């Protein structure tokens, strides 16, 4: 477990995710309950799958009686972007020992964004990274549990719920922009996403964006450093 100091340092950085994760996690918990899978399944998925949009996808696929192979392929395709995150975090996670398994499991989009700019000032860096990832998952699991408990009592319309996630990322981006004087990586990300969005549309732009960003970062590596 991380030290108390690590939790104290990590918590302020995770505040933007606190409300968003609890609300979206609760939405997931309600949907699982309404799909007939119950509280334990909802919490189990948030503890052991912990993949945000993938969890919503899995519930829909299970409800449509999709076979396991199709579920596996769709999940692998949706989470292909995690390969880029994993490569980027190889060096920071290299000194984590056995903790690397949990850190890898909890390396979500949001945790990766936070770990990219939030650094330990007083606590051990490995404790700090673990505290960030652990707090984020706790928020998600707590939200899921609340949603699953309340899910039997009402029907949920999830239209517009994705705005919470988008808003969370906007807050993280602003904090990251303010935390560093080097804005080239952020601008590369923005322009890559905008260009791919215009070329490929909102349904298919994510994977090309990641490929373009990685290529540009490799090409301009020396200048960015």
What does this structure look like?
The protein has 225 residues and is an all-alpha fold. It is 77% helix and 0% strand. It contains 13 helices and no strands. The chain has helices at residues 4-34, 38-48, 53-63, 68-78, 82-88, 90-93, 99-105, 109-117, 125-150, 162-179, 184-204, 206-219, 221-224. Helix 11 packs antiparallel against helix 12 (206-219). The longest helix is centred in the first third of the chain and has 31 residues, at 4-34. It is globular. The chain starts with a helix and ends with a helix. The model has no long low-confidence stretch (mean pLDDT 81).
- Work out the strand percent: under 5%
Continuous helix count: 13
**Succession of helices and strands:** HHHHHHHHHHHHH
Structural class: mainly alpha
Mean pLDDT: 81
- Based on CA atoms alone, the radius of gyration comes out at 18 Å
Oligomer: single chain
Instruction: Count every beta strand, where a strand is a DSSP E run of 2 or more residues.
Output: 0
Unreliable stretches (pLDDT < 50, length at least 5) are none
Please give the largest β-sheet: none
Share of residues in helices: over 70%
Terminus-to-terminus distance:
33 Å
Give the overall shape.
globular
Lay out the secondary structure.
Elements (H helix, E strand, L loop, with lengths): L3 H31 L3 H11 L4 H11 L4 H11 L3 H7 L1 H4 L5 H7 L3 H9 L7 H26 L11 H18 L4 H21 L1 H14 L1 H4 L1
Helix pairs in contact: 1-2, 1-9, 1-10, 2-9, 8-9, 8-10, 11-12
């Amino acid at each position: 477990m991380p030290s108390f100091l690590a939790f104290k340092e990590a918590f302020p950085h995770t505040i933007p995710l606190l409300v968003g994760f609890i609300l979206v996690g609760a939405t997931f918990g309600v949907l699982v309950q309404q799909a007939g899978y119950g509280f334990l399944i909802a919490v189990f998925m948030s503890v052991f799958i912990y993949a945000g949009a993938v969890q919503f996808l899995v519930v829909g696929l299970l409800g449509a009686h999709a076979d396991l192979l199709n579920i596996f392929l769709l999940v692998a395709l949706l989470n292909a972007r995690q390969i880029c995150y994993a490569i980027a975090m190889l060096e920071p996670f290299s000194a984590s020992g056995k903790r690397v398994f949990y850190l890898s499991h909890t390396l979500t989009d949001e945790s990766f964004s936070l770990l990219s700019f939030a650094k330990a000032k007083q606590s051990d860096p490995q404790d700090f990274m673990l505290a960030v990832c652990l707090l984020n998952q706790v928020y998600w699991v707590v939200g899921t549990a609340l949603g699953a408990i309340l899910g039997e009592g009402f029907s949920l319309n999830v239209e517009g719920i994705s705005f919470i996630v988008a808003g969370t990322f906007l807050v993280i981006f602003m904090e990251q922009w303010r935390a560093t004087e080097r804005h080239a990586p952020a601008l590369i990300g923005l322009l890559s996403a905008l260009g791919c969005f215009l070329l490929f549309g909102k349904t298919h732009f994510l994977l090309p964006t990641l490929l373009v960003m990685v290529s540009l970062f490799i090409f301009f590596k020396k200048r960015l450093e």
